[in-house]
Amino acid sequence: xxxxxxxxxxxxxxxxxxxxxxxxxxxxxxxxxxxxxxxxxxxxxxxxxxxxxxxxxxxxxxxxxxxxxxxxxxxxxxxxxxxxxxxxxxxxxxxxxxxxxxxxxxxxxxxxxxxxxxxxxxxxxxxxxxxxxxxxxxxxxxxxxxxxxxxxxxxxxxxxxxxxxxxxxxxxxxxxxxxxxxxxxxxxxxxxxxxxxxxxxxxxxxxxxxxxxxxxxxxxxxxxxxxxxxxxxxxxxxxxxxxxxxxxxxxxxxxxxxxxxxxxxxxxxxxxxxxxxxxxxxxxxxxxxxxxxxxxxxxxxxxxx
Length: 305
Prior knowledge:
305 residues, alpha+beta, four-stranded antiparallel beta sheet, 11 helices, 8% strand
């Protein structure tokens, strides 16, 4: 009987404040969708870092014949055969180095034509303008400075370049987008909490006569508060479910369906469905508990029991 009464009170409250309940559902859904999206974005960046940092190399560019007049580091002339052997030997002795691959000017020119052959500048580049280099793969890509310190400024070395620096700009942009999403999520969350508090306040005021009668007949404070808390929790749960639907739909549309980024961007290791599914219980739990807790605190102020 008590459970039936509580459920009937929840239905009455939702019908009386239908517009505000709808606003709460939408606000909670959007804020939780942004929250889940931010978590997935962070995991995507982490996955991409693991994928790309494992593939990038440290490039040691060697001085060419025409570099002595234009490059300060090559003032002593082009790299000699003896210097190349010495550099390669020293690289292979280092514990942080996994593999060392030599790339000649002709090979560098061939790779350049394969990647940038359609650009207007490609026709003006000749093989002798491409620098020789050693492509060094490290056991731990974060140990780049060990190689840079050992070979930067060395005779025959033009420069030492860490390819991670190229990717850091991309990851920095993605992290910035993630921070922006978290900021918008926090803003939407504050709006949702304000709507929840206001909805509970209006609901408590509209049913002040019923709650007064319940106090007179000896109903406990928790029993009086329960319908209001359940109303907020129910609206939050619906918002959480909608947020889960948006996350699932976004993952499908962006990666598998509609845009099909997985087929168009083969070089990116996208997160799988398991990453999305593991976030859904957290989204639902927050959607259920956040409005209930907010309603509980709101009732202390607006419902004297």
